[in-house]
What we know:
Layout: E1 2-3, E2 6-7, H1 10-21, H2 35-49, E3 52-53, E4 58-59, E5 72-73, E6 78-79, E7 89-91, E8 96-97, E9 102-103, E10 128-130, E11 135-136, E12 141-142, E13 147-148, E14 153-154, E15 159-160, E16 168-172, E17 175-180
Parallel strand pairs: 3-5, 4-6, 5-7, 6-8, 7-10, 8-11, 9-12, 10-13, 11-14, 12-15, 14-16
Antiparallel strand pairs: 1-2, 16-17
Helix pairs in contact: 1-2
Amino acid sequence: MKIKGVDFSIKKICCLILYYGFATHLPDSYSSVFGNVSNRLRVFLCKRIFLKCGSIRTINRKVSFGSGRRIEMGDESGIGANTQIPSDTIIGKNVMLSRKCFILDRNHRFDRVDIPINDQGFKEAKQTIIEDDCWVGMNTLFTPGRRVRKGTIIAMGSVVTKDFPEYSIVGGNPAKLIKSRLNEENSHSH
Length: 190
Protein backbone atom coordinates (compact mmCIF):
# COMPACT_ATOMS: atom_id res chain seq x y z
CA MET A 1 0.00 0.00 0.00
CA LYS A 2 1.34 3.48 -0.88
CA ILE A 3 0.51 6.58 1.15
CA LYS A 4 2.03 9.86 -0.10
CA GLY A 5 4.71 8.01 -2.07
CA VAL A 6 5.71 5.73 0.83
CA ASP A 7 5.23 1.99 0.67
CA PHE A 8 3.54 0.65 3.81
CA SER A 9 3.36 -3.08 4.41
CA ILE A 10 0.42 -4.66 6.19
CA LYS A 11 2.85 -5.71 8.95
CA LYS A 12 3.99 -2.12 9.50
CA ILE A 13 0.40 -0.84 9.54
CA CYS A 14 -0.56 -3.51 12.11
CA CYS A 15 2.45 -2.56 14.26
CA LEU A 16 1.43 1.13 14.12
CA ILE A 17 -2.13 0.25 15.14
CA LEU A 18 -0.88 -1.90 18.03
CA TYR A 19 1.61 0.74 19.11
CA TYR A 20 -0.74 3.76 19.13
CA GLY A 21 -3.88 1.85 20.11
CA PHE A 22 -2.41 -0.25 22.90
CA ALA A 23 1.33 -0.28 23.69
CA THR A 24 1.81 3.47 24.11
CA HIS A 25 -0.75 3.41 26.97
CA LEU A 26 0.95 0.64 28.95
CA PRO A 27 2.83 1.44 32.20
CA ASP A 28 5.99 3.53 32.33
CA SER A 29 9.10 1.59 31.29
CA TYR A 30 10.59 2.12 34.74
CA SER A 31 7.49 1.05 36.66
CA SER A 32 8.06 -1.83 39.06
CA VAL A 33 4.81 -3.42 37.86
CA PHE A 34 4.86 -4.45 34.17
CA GLY A 35 7.38 -1.73 33.26
CA ASN A 36 9.91 -4.09 31.72
CA VAL A 37 7.25 -6.00 29.76
CA SER A 38 5.65 -2.75 28.55
CA ASN A 39 9.01 -1.43 27.38
CA ARG A 40 9.86 -4.67 25.56
CA LEU A 41 6.56 -4.60 23.67
CA ARG A 42 7.04 -0.97 22.59
CA VAL A 43 10.62 -1.68 21.48
CA PHE A 44 9.45 -4.80 19.60
CA LEU A 45 6.87 -2.76 17.69
CA CYS A 46 9.20 0.17 16.96
CA LYS A 47 11.81 -2.20 15.49
CA ARG A 48 9.14 -3.12 12.93
CA ILE A 49 8.01 0.47 12.34
CA PHE A 50 11.25 2.50 12.12
CA LEU A 51 13.37 2.57 8.97
CA LYS A 52 16.50 1.49 10.86
CA CYS A 53 16.67 0.39 14.45
CA GLY A 54 19.51 -0.81 16.65
CA SER A 55 19.34 -2.51 20.00
CA ILE A 56 17.10 0.06 21.74
CA ARG A 57 17.09 0.48 25.52
CA THR A 58 13.81 2.34 26.02
CA ILE A 59 10.71 3.51 24.22
CA ASN A 60 8.69 4.88 27.10
CA ARG A 61 4.93 5.42 27.19
CA LYS A 62 3.14 7.98 25.03
CA VAL A 63 6.06 8.57 22.66
CA SER A 64 4.69 9.95 19.40
CA PHE A 65 6.64 9.62 16.14
CA GLY A 66 4.04 9.95 13.39
CA SER A 67 4.31 7.04 10.98
CA GLY A 68 7.95 6.43 11.95
CA ARG A 69 8.64 5.66 8.30
CA ARG A 70 12.02 7.41 8.13
CA ILE A 71 13.18 7.24 11.77
CA GLU A 72 16.61 5.80 12.41
CA MET A 73 17.68 4.94 15.95
CA GLY A 74 21.04 3.53 17.02
CA ASP A 75 22.09 0.98 19.61
CA GLU A 76 21.59 1.60 23.34
CA SER A 77 19.45 4.74 22.81
CA GLY A 78 16.18 5.55 24.52
CA ILE A 79 13.22 7.91 24.22
CA GLY A 80 11.49 9.23 27.36
CA ALA A 81 7.76 9.37 28.05
CA ASN A 82 5.52 11.93 26.35
CA THR A 83 8.18 12.83 23.76
CA GLN A 84 7.19 13.86 20.24
CA ILE A 85 9.47 13.42 17.27
CA PRO A 86 8.69 13.75 13.57
CA SER A 87 8.91 10.68 11.37
CA ASP A 88 12.09 11.93 9.63
CA THR A 89 14.48 11.98 12.61
CA ILE A 90 17.86 10.31 13.10
CA ILE A 91 18.91 9.36 16.63
CA GLY A 92 22.45 8.01 17.01
CA LYS A 93 23.91 5.44 19.40
CA ASN A 94 23.87 5.86 23.20
CA VAL A 95 21.45 8.81 23.10
CA MET A 96 19.33 9.62 26.14
CA LEU A 97 16.29 11.61 25.03
CA SER A 98 14.44 12.48 28.23
CA ARG A 99 10.74 12.95 28.97
CA LYS A 100 8.57 15.58 27.29
CA CYS A 101 10.99 16.53 24.51
CA PHE A 102 9.54 18.04 21.35
CA ILE A 103 11.27 18.03 18.01
CA LEU A 104 9.61 20.21 15.39
CA ASP A 105 10.13 19.55 11.69
CA ARG A 106 8.45 22.66 10.26
CA ASN A 107 6.91 26.01 11.10
CA HIS A 108 3.98 28.02 9.83
CA ARG A 109 4.55 30.53 7.07
CA PHE A 110 3.92 34.11 8.18
CA ASP A 111 5.54 36.30 5.50
CA ARG A 112 2.27 37.75 4.17
CA VAL A 113 0.19 40.24 6.14
CA ASP A 114 -2.75 40.34 3.73
CA ILE A 115 -4.00 36.87 4.77
CA PRO A 116 -4.23 35.19 8.19
CA ILE A 117 -1.22 33.14 9.31
CA ASN A 118 -3.33 29.99 9.61
CA ASP A 119 -4.13 30.24 5.87
CA GLN A 120 -0.49 30.54 4.74
CA GLY A 121 0.49 26.90 5.11
CA PHE A 122 3.79 25.51 6.31
CA LYS A 123 7.45 25.95 5.48
CA GLU A 124 9.33 22.97 4.08
CA ALA A 125 10.02 20.22 6.63
CA LYS A 126 13.59 19.88 7.92
CA GLN A 127 15.26 16.81 9.40
CA THR A 128 16.71 16.73 12.94
CA ILE A 129 19.78 14.60 13.64
CA ILE A 130 20.98 13.73 17.14
CA GLU A 131 24.46 12.24 16.87
CA ASP A 132 25.99 9.57 19.14
CA ASP A 133 26.41 9.87 22.92
CA CYS A 134 24.10 12.82 23.56
CA TRP A 135 21.96 13.55 26.61
CA VAL A 136 18.85 15.69 26.08
CA GLY A 137 17.17 16.93 29.26
CA MET A 138 13.46 16.91 30.02
CA ASN A 139 11.14 19.51 28.42
CA THR A 140 13.57 20.41 25.64
CA LEU A 141 12.22 21.90 22.41
CA PHE A 142 14.04 21.73 19.07
CA THR A 143 13.26 24.11 16.22
CA PRO A 144 13.25 22.46 12.77
CA GLY A 145 16.46 21.17 11.23
CA ARG A 146 18.74 20.96 14.27
CA ARG A 147 21.90 18.85 14.32
CA VAL A 148 22.98 17.89 17.83
CA ARG A 149 26.67 17.02 17.56
CA LYS A 150 28.36 14.03 19.18
CA GLY A 151 28.69 14.09 22.97
CA THR A 152 26.45 17.11 23.52
CA ILE A 153 24.45 17.63 26.71
CA ILE A 154 21.32 19.80 26.52
CA ALA A 155 20.02 21.12 29.85
CA MET A 156 16.44 20.55 30.95
CA GLY A 157 13.93 23.08 29.59
CA SER A 158 16.15 24.34 26.76
CA VAL A 159 14.90 25.72 23.47
CA VAL A 160 17.43 24.65 20.84
CA THR A 161 17.36 27.14 17.95
CA LYS A 162 20.87 26.61 16.52
CA ASP A 163 23.61 24.00 16.31
CA PHE A 164 26.67 23.72 18.57
CA PRO A 165 30.08 21.98 18.31
CA GLU A 166 30.73 18.42 19.49
CA TYR A 167 30.86 17.84 23.25
CA SER A 168 29.04 21.06 24.11
CA ILE A 169 26.95 21.63 27.22
CA VAL A 170 24.11 23.97 26.29
CA GLY A 171 21.05 25.35 28.02
CA GLY A 172 18.51 28.14 28.22
CA ASN A 173 15.86 29.80 26.08
CA PRO A 174 17.24 30.18 23.51
CA ALA A 175 19.96 27.61 24.26
CA LYS A 176 23.47 29.02 24.59
CA LEU A 177 26.85 27.35 25.01
CA ILE A 178 27.55 26.88 28.74
CA LYS A 179 30.88 25.14 28.27
CA SER A 180 32.69 22.48 26.29
CA ARG A 181 33.14 18.98 27.65
CA LEU A 182 36.53 19.01 25.93
CA ASN A 183 38.81 20.48 28.56
CA GLU A 184 42.27 19.68 29.90
CA GLU A 185 40.91 17.14 32.41
CA ASN A 186 39.29 14.80 29.88
CA SER A 187 40.92 15.67 26.56
CA HIS A 188 43.25 12.65 26.87
CA SER A 189 40.31 10.31 26.27
CA HIS A 190 39.67 11.61 22.73
